[in-house]
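idk why but the lab printer keeps eating my pages so im just putting this in chat instead. protein + flavin-adenine dinucleotide:
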Amino acid sequence: MDRSGIDDVLVIGGGPAGLTAATYLGRLHRRVRVLDAGQSRARWIPESNNCPGFPDGIAGNDLLARMREQAGGYGARFERATVTGLQRENGRYAVTADDGRRWQAPAVILATGLADRLPDMEHGDAAIACGALRLCPVCDAYEATDLDVGIFGPWRDIVAHARFLRGYTARLSLLPTDATGAVEELEDVDARVLPAGGRLLFDGRRCGYRPDGQESHWFDVVYPFLGWDSSAGLARQAGVVLTGRGEIPVDRSHQTTGVPGLYAIGDVVSGINQISVAVGQAAVAALDVHARLPFVPRA
Ligand SMILES: Cc1cc2nc3c(=O)[nH]c(=O)nc-3n(C[C@H](O)[C@H](O)[C@H](O)COP(=O)(O)OP(=O)(O)OC[C@H]3O[C@@H](n4cnc5c(N)ncnc54)[C@H](O)[C@@H]3O)c2cc1C
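predcted complex ->
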């Protein structure tokens, strides 16, 4: 059978999930192409300290570069592309990018991650880069142990996260973006609550919070909880019925979506948005795709 020019699997998204899937598929002698818009959440990571195998930590961009090199070493091909179309036609997927390029394959792995909604503040990128503004307590609250920490966002969400962060520091302040709720909701958390509706600031080193017409309060670390956007709509185009919350339902034992040949892995489906979860799901999906694609004996 002439397999030239045909991909076995298209992976949409080149973060830790998509790159791990590409490495596995390459090592299974499958033809795999990664279509990636280049906005991995991992690029924000100044230093990850819970990534297995890196006891001294690793920056997100360094990790991504290593993972790309590893996948490329087993034949994965890469395209910078923003995918806007995903249709299933005659048992094959047709994938289109916003610039009109088009690819086809019998299987697709969606690994498009999430895009964090960031606070409306000046120099937010620089604040993330130096760790003053952080987006993931599971990732880096350990490094905020006993520091002065602010939690910014809607009351309902920051109360929920206050309990988790109280395990790391007694110096907690809640910075609500909407009305302040009942303080009893905080129960044993013992956190300071500042007036709602203030703005976040960054002075080049630390983040501050200024309630309307009042003086600013400064913190070692601020965690905003403003939610995120996802590309789950691509799965819907291919026939997946999303959950009421707009999420892609997957069978956790194989990462299948219910539409034949379409898988979803990593932050776009995880619930626990972690590199180790993303790479685990990638391995599961890659092996399942391989098992379901036609068997190709070695010549
Ligand atoms: C500041 C910060 C610190 C973090 N620290 C840690 C940590 O220490 N440890 C840890 O385990 N996790 C950490 N995380 C979480 C970690 O980054 C994510 O869990 C991980 O990146 C998820 O991998 P993914 O491949 O699912 O998604 P991503 O890494 O987000 O990759 C998705 C890729 O898909 C691309 N994409 C999206 N839509 C399309 C489209 N339509 N067409 C083409 N490409 C598309 C994106 O551009 C992106 O490149 C951190 C996150 C942040 C923001």
